[in-house]
Design goal:
This protein has 263 residues and is α/β, with parallel strands linked by helices. It has a single domain, classed as 3-Layer(aba) Sandwich (Rossmann fold), CATH 3.40.50. The protein has 11 helices and 7 strands. The strands form 2 sheets. It has a 4-stranded parallel β-sheet with strand order 2-1-4-5, sandwiched between helices. The chain has a 3-stranded parallel β-sheet with strand order 3-7-6, with helices on both faces. Helix 6 links the parallel strand 4 and strand 5.
């Protein structure tokens, strides 16, 4: 059974569900209309994964501040983490695995606030399915891409042009809404203000990752690497269907971050 059919089955059975939508959603969906559509679909609550990203930032900052001599590689990307495990096991000790990804952090928030509800992550990343099933099975997160949730909307005849109601996220955090762009973690956490320019690196795109890892190993001055596996960040994830350029996708994220919404 695919994740799409699993969700359709859960919705038909009226199972208690919370939608956790990734911060890249403005590339694909309008706000606040997406909340209206998800609640019409049958989700009891809709939360912004940016809320979990705030927790991720707090954990990363604690690592940096409590370990002033240590060096860290951070990434919410399961593909990158698996690349380190298989190809660069010598760098495993540098991975900040004690800091939750925004998805995992949000799921924990959901469990605290809505203990009887199952979290459903909706985002641009196929590899998040592996993170859910292999890294955090205890959180019981069902993961769908934007492509897959579009199939669910279609199955239940949820009108893509339906008028938005006065909906708001049940959990949100506006400070971390640029997280899906390369450097999002560094900028929203303030790491760039704590460390000198030569002490951190922002990397996106799988073609650039290996070069950055080589530099990290050869340059001990680099204390912090912020890595996203897709070029430009999660705005360019494989679960997104969009004809927009990376620049235009980032503009949608920045507009939403700045409070510009589209009904």
């Amino acid at each position: 059974m695919t994740e799409t059919t699993q969700l359709i089955d859960l919705l038909n059975k009226k199972v208690k569900l919370v939608a956790m939508i990734a911060p890249s959603f403005p590339v694909v969906y309008k706000y606040p209309q997406i909340i209206t559509r998800l609640k019409k679909l049958g989700f009891a609550y809709v939360v912004e994964v940016s809320a979990g990203a705030k927790k991720t930032n707090e954990q990363v900052l604690n690592l940096l501040q409590n370990n002033p001599k240590f060096r860290f590689i951070t990434s919410p990307c399961p593909s990158f983490v698996r690349m380190i495990r298989t190809k660069y096991p010598n760098l495993l000790n540098f991975l900040a695995l004690s800091a939750d990804s925004p998805m995992a952090a949000t799921a924990k928030l959901v469990r605290e606030k809505y203990p009887d509800y199952r979290p459903v992550f909706i985002g641009p990343c196929i590899a998040k399915k592996l993170e859910s099933s292999e890294d955090h099975p205890e959180l019981n997160i069902l993961v769908l891409t934007y492509k897959e949730i579009a199939e669910v909307f279609k199955n239940f005849n949820i009108d893509p042009n339906m008028p938005a109601e006065n909906d708001k996220f049940d959990l949100e955090n506006s400070d971390t809404r640029i997280y899906p762009m390369d450097g999002g973690l560094t900028l929203t956490s303030g790491v760039n203000r704590i460390l000198k320019d030569e002490e951190f690196r922002i990397v996106s795109g799988w073609k650039n990752v290996e070069e950055a890892l080589i530099e990290f190993q050869s340059n001990p001055k680099i204390r912090f690497m912020d890595v996203l596996f897709c070029e430009g960040g999660c705005v360019n994830g494989p679960g997104i269907v969009s004809t927009l350029s990376i620049v235009d996708r980032k503009k949608k994220i920045i507009d939403y971050f700045n409070g510009k919404t589209s009904y």
